[in-house]
C-alpha cells in the first residue's frame, strides 16, 4: 500500500542540536536524543564468495559503530528481510532459510530485539571475505538484525558484543579478542564491549595495522583505510525513521491532492479549492478490502482537474491527529484569520510558547513532532523562531489518598508489617484512617500499637476506587479551595498525595481572608455589605509586610513554586490581623496578589472594595525595593565570652548606642551586676 510519509529524518541533526538551547527537563531531552539515535560509524563492504572463495558477484554493506573491531569480525549476519538473501542462499540451505524467514515474519520488532530472548539463526550457505584480514567468513541469517536499521546486515564481533557472543557460543563460531581493557582485566567468559587498546589487529596482506592504538584512534584509522581502498565510507546513522503520515479511516484531514485517471499523475489542489472537507458518510466502517472508508463516498472521490478538465479521483487516506496537534498553539495566537495560518506580527509578539506544561508521555511523539513541524514552518518563513516551546514542565501526578493495609494470619490474628513471618501467606485488610495512629515514622493500629501497617498512596483509578471527583470537592468547599489546595500540596513538578483533610486548611485560610476584608458574620450567618477597610495612609511597617509578600509571591510564581507563594500570603494575613486598621491601598494590592490563586473570591472582594470593573484588567502589583530593605537587625550579645541573648536594633545604630541598648536590656543587665 502506498503511504504518505513526512521526511523528518532530514531534520534529525537540527532536532538534536537545538535541544541544547531549551529549558526542558534533561530526562525528556535524553529521551528525544535516544529516539533520534544518532550514531557515527562506517559502512563497510564485504564481497560475497562461495566456500572456495570464488566471487559471487554480490557485495554486502554493513553498518558498524565500531570499525576498530574489524579484525574480530568472524561472521556476518543479515536480516531475514534482506534484499540480497535469496541470491546469497545456497541450494542446500534454501529450505532451512525460507522456513526461518517465514517464522521471523510473524514476530514484531520488539520481540526480535528483546535482549533476554534466546538468539536463533541459520547459515545461508554463502561466505564473505573480510577486507582487513582476507579471511573467508560465513554469512548467517538471524532475526535479531533488523532490515529497518542501518543496512540490514552486521559484521559480528563476538568477543566484543554480547548478542554476537551469545550467538557465536550457540553455533560454535570463532571468537577473536581484538580489544584489551586499559587495565588488562576482563572476564574471559563475557564479551568486552568498552573501548581499550587494540590487539590481534594487523594483516600483512591488507597492509592495515592498528595494534597498540586506542579504540577511538583505531576507528578513525580503519575508516580512512576503507575509504582510500574502496571498501567503505564514514557514515552517520539514525534510529529515527521517516514519519508515516496516512491513516485508512474516515475521520482526519483529507489530503488536498487528486490523481489523473489517464496518467495517475498526482496534482495538488489550487488554493481557491481549499479547504477540502470530508464528505458526509452514513457508513464509515472498514471496507473489508483494505481500502479506506472514504472510497464509499463515490461521488466525492470522482472529480475533475480544474486546470485540464480531465477526470480524476481524490486521495482516500486521511491525515493522523498530528496534522492538527502539531501546530494548534500557533492558531491560538490568531484564531480567526481566514487568509493565513498566523499573522506574522502576532506570531512575532506571542511566539514562542513561554511555558508548556505536560506529561512525559508526550516526550517522543507530540513534543518531537511539533518541533519538526515548527522547523519546517520556520524554513518557509511562517514562524520567526526555530523552536515552539521555550520551557517545558512535567507536572507531578496527584495520587489517591494514603491507603493503610494490615495483615491477618490464617487464625485471624493481626501480623505486624515488619514481622519476620511471610506476609504473602497473610490476608490483607484495609484499615480506615480513624483506626490508625502514627508513631515515629510508622503507622500502627490505635488499639494495638505493636501492629505496624503498610501505608501507600496509589495512582487514582476506578478499579481501586480511589478517584476523587472534583465536582464533589467543589460542592463542599468551593472551586477556589480545590484550586488552591492543588497548588498548595507541593511543588508543581513533584508527585503528591491527595488528602481530603488537607483541603480544610486552605479552606480556612480563604475564610480568614474573607473575614479580614469583610468582617465577622452577622448573627444569622450573612455578611454586611462593604468591607472593613479604611482610606487611611498605610504605615511603613504595613507597606513593608505587603511588599515582602509581593516580592515573594511574584518570585514563586515565576519559579512555579505555587505552594510557597500561598504560604507567603498566609503569613501576610496572619500579620494583617494584628493591625489596628486595614488600609484600602494595602488590601487592594493583596487581593490582586490572591487573584490568580483564588479568582472567584478575589473578584468578589474586588467589587466589595468599590471597583467598577474586573480585576482581570488591573496591573499585577510589583514590589518596591525601598520596602524590602530590613531596617532592623538582630545582634547576639556576649558577656565575658558567653552568648547571653540577642537584641533588635536599628540598622543605622552606632556601636555606642547598641552598647547602651544591650546594657539596659532586663534580660542581659543581670549578668553585669557588680561588673565592668
TrEMBL record:
<dbReference type="InterPro" id="IPR009080">
    <property type="entry name" value="tRNAsynth_Ia_anticodon-bd"/>
</dbReference>
<dbReference type="GO" id="GO:0002161">
    <property type="term" value="F:aminoacyl-tRNA deacylase activity"/>
</dbReference>
<comment type="similarity">
    <text>Belongs to the class-I aminoacyl-tRNA synthetase family.</text>
</comment>
<dbReference type="InterPro" id="IPR013155">
    <property type="entry name" value="M/V/L/I-tRNA-synth_anticd-bd"/>
</dbReference>
<dbReference type="InterPro" id="IPR025709">
    <property type="entry name" value="Leu_tRNA-synth_edit"/>
</dbReference>
<feature type="domain" description="Aminoacyl-tRNA synthetase class Ia">
    <location>
        <begin position="456"/>
        <end position="487"/>
    </location>
</feature>
<protein>
    <recommendedName>
        <fullName>leucine--tRNA ligase</fullName>
        <ecNumber>6.1.1.4</ecNumber>
    </recommendedName>
</protein>
<dbReference type="GO" id="GO:0006429">
    <property type="term" value="P:leucyl-tRNA aminoacylation"/>
</dbReference>
<dbReference type="InterPro" id="IPR002300">
    <property type="entry name" value="aa-tRNA-synth_Ia"/>
</dbReference>
<dbReference type="GO" id="GO:0005739">
    <property type="term" value="C:mitochondrion"/>
</dbReference>
<keyword id="KW-0436">Ligase</keyword>
<keyword id="KW-0067">ATP-binding</keyword>
<feature type="domain" description="Leucyl-tRNA synthetase editing">
    <location>
        <begin position="33"/>
        <end position="217"/>
    </location>
</feature>
<dbReference type="InterPro" id="IPR002302">
    <property type="entry name" value="Leu-tRNA-ligase"/>
</dbReference>
<keyword id="KW-0547">Nucleotide-binding</keyword>
<dbReference type="GO" id="GO:0005524">
    <property type="term" value="F:ATP binding"/>
</dbReference>
<dbReference type="GO" id="GO:0005829">
    <property type="term" value="C:cytosol"/>
</dbReference>
<dbReference type="Pfam" id="PF08264">
    <property type="entry name" value="Anticodon_1"/>
</dbReference>
<dbReference type="InterPro" id="IPR009008">
    <property type="entry name" value="Val/Leu/Ile-tRNA-synth_edit"/>
</dbReference>
<dbReference type="Pfam" id="PF13603">
    <property type="entry name" value="tRNA-synt_1_2"/>
</dbReference>
<keyword id="KW-0030">Aminoacyl-tRNA synthetase</keyword>
<dbReference type="InterPro" id="IPR014729">
    <property type="entry name" value="Rossmann-like_a/b/a_fold"/>
</dbReference>
<feature type="domain" description="Methionyl/Valyl/Leucyl/Isoleucyl-tRNA synthetase anticodon-binding">
    <location>
        <begin position="543"/>
        <end position="651"/>
    </location>
</feature>
<dbReference type="Pfam" id="PF00133">
    <property type="entry name" value="tRNA-synt_1"/>
</dbReference>
<keyword id="KW-0648">Protein biosynthesis</keyword>
<dbReference type="GO" id="GO:0004823">
    <property type="term" value="F:leucine-tRNA ligase activity"/>
</dbReference>
Amino acid at each position: 500500500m502506498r503511504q504518505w510519509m513526512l521526511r523528518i529524518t532530514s531534520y534529525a541533526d537540527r532536532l538534536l542540536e537545538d535541544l541544547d538551547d531549551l529549558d526542558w527537563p534533561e530526562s525528556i531531552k535524553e529521551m528525544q536524543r535516544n529516539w533520534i539515535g544518532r550514531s557515527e560509524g562506517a559502512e563497510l563492504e564485504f564481497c560475497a564468495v562461495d566456500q572456495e572463495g570464488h566471487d559471487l558477484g554480490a557485495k554486502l554493506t554493513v553498518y558498524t559503530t565500531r570499525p576498530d573491531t574489524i579484525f574480530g569480525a568472524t561472521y556476518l549476519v543479515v536480516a531475514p528481510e534482506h534484499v540480497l538473501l535469496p541470491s546469497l542462499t545456497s541450494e542446500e540451505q534454501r529450505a532451512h532459510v525460507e522456513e526461518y524467514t517465514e517464522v521471523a515474519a510473524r514476530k514484531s520488532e520488539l520481540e526480535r530485539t528483546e535482549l533476554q530472548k534466546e538468539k536463533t539463526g541459520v547459515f545461508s550457505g554463502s561466505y564473505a571475505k573480510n577486507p582487513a584480514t582476507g579471511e573467508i567468513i560465513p554469512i548467517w541469517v538471524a532475526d535479531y538484525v533488523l532490515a529497518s536499521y542501518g543496512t540490514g546486515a552486521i559484521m559480528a564481533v563476538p568477543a566484543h558484543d554480547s548478542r554476537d557472543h551469545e550467538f557465536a557460543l550457540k553455533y560454535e563460531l570463532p571468537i577473536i579478542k581484538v580489544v584489551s581493557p586499559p587495565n588488562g582485566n576482563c572476564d574471559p567468559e563475557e564479551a568486552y564491549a568498552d573501548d581499550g587498546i587494540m590487539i590481534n589487529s594487523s594483516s600483512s596482506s591488507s597492509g592495515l595495522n592498528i595494534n597498540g592504538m586506542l579504540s577511538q584512534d583505531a576507528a578513525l584509522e580503519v575508516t580512512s583505510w576503507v575509504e582510500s581502498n574502496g571498501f567503505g565510507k564514514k557514515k552517520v546513522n539514525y534510529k529515527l525513521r521517516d514519519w508515516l503520515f496516512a491513516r485508512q479511516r474516515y475521520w482526519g484531514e483529507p489530503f488536498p491532492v487528486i490523481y489523473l485517471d489517464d496518467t495517475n499523475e498526482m496534482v495538488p489542489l489550487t488554493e481557491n479549492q481549499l479547504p477540502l472537507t470530508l464528505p458526509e458518510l452514513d457508513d464509515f466502517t472498514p471496507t473489508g478490502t483494505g481500502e479506506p472508508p472514504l472510497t464509499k463516498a463515490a461521488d466525492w472521490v470522482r472529480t475533475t482537474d480544474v486546470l485540464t478538465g480531465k477526470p480524476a479521483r481524490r486521495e482516500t487516506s486521511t491525515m493522523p491527529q498530528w496534522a492538527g496537534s502539531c501546530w494548534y498553539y500557533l492558531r491560538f495566537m490568531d484564531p480567526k484569520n481566514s487568509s493565513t495560518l498566523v499573522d506574522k506580527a502576532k506570531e512575532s509578539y506571542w511566539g514562542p510558547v513561554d511555558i508548556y506544561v505536560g506529561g512525559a508521555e508526550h516526550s517522543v511523539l507530540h513534543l518531537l513532532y511539533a518541533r519538526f513541524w515548527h522547523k519546517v514552518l520556520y524554513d518557509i518563513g511562517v514562524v520567526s523562531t526555530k523552536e515552539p516551546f521555550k520551557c517545558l514542565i512535567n507536572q507531578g501526578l496527584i495520587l489517591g489518598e494514603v491507603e493503610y493495609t494490615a495483615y491477618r494470619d490464617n487464625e485471624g490474628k493481626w501480623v505486624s508489617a515488619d514481622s519476620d513471618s511471610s506476609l504473602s501467606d497473610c490476608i490483607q485488610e484495609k484499615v480506615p484512617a480513624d483506626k490508625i495512629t502514627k508513631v515515629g515514622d510508622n503507622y500502627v493500629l490505635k488499639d494495638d500499637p505493636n501492629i505496624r501497617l503498610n501505608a501507600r498512596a496509589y495512582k487514582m483509578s476506578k478499579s481501586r476506587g480511589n478517584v476523587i471527583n472534583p465536582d464533589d470537592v467543589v460542592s463542599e468547599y468551593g472551586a477556589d479551595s480545590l484550586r488552591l489546595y492543588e497548588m498548595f500540596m507541593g511543588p508543581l513538578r513533584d508527585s503528591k498525595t491527595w488528602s481530603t483533610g488537607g483541603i480544610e486548611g486552605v479552606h480556612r485560610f480563604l475564610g480568614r481572608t474573607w473575614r479580614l476584608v469583610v468582617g465577622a458574620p452577622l448573627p444569622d450567618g450573612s455578611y454586611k455589605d462593604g468591607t472593613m477597610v479604611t482610606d487611611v495612609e498605610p504605615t511603613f511597617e504595613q507597606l513593608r509586610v505587603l511588599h515582602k509578600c509581593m516580592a515573594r509571591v511574584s518570585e514563586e510564581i515565576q519559579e512555579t513554586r505555587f505552594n510557597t507563594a500561598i504560604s507567603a500570603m498566609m503569613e501576610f494575613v496572619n500579620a494583617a490581623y494584628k493591625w489596628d486598621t486595614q488600609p484600602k491601598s494595602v488590601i487592594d494590592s493583596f487581593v490582586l496578589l490572591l487573584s490568580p490563586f483564588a479568582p472567584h473570591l478575589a473578584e468578589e472582594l474586588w467589587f466589595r472594595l468599590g471597583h467598577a470593573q474586573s480585576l482581570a484588567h488591573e496591573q499585577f502589583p510589583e514590589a518596591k525595593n525601598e520596602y524590602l530593605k530590613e531596617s532592623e537587625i538582630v545582634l547576639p550579645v556576649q558577656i565575658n565570652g558567653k552568648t547571653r541573648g540577642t537584641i533588635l536594633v536599628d540598622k543605622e545604630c552606632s556601636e555606642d548606642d547598641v552598647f547602651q541598648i544591650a546594657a539596659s536590656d532586663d534580660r542581659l543587665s543581670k549578668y553585669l551586676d557588680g561588673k565592668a
